[in-house]
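Predict fold of Nitrogen regulatory protein P-II family; 113 aa.
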Amino acid sequence: MKEIKAIIQPFMLTKVLTALHKIEGLPGVTISEVKGFGKTRRSKEKELSNEGIYEFVPKIKIEIVVRDELAETVVNTIQENAHTGNPGDGKIFVIEVSNVVKIRTNERGEEAI
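Predicted 3D structure, encoded as tokens:
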């Protein structure tokens, strides 16, 4: 099993979700609003706010746990539909998942996703 985490531009969420929804066997998606900064930061003068706290850019985090055979399809779908070609498009992380437990039924492993 793989966990796919993607950090994308908020305005690309609908396009990405529409494409993901078309993948047969996709178990589900978790979406979070997050903030951060990457290598391409704003200029130094704008980086610190009046309070001395860094200004973070709003992003969307998508998290999906899938069977191994779906992982590449999900990654490609996110990459193709979140791509604008501009700095800040985001990142996709693929992480090995050793186990999953479904709380309601106590199912474990792939049956739990």
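The chain has one domain: 2-112.
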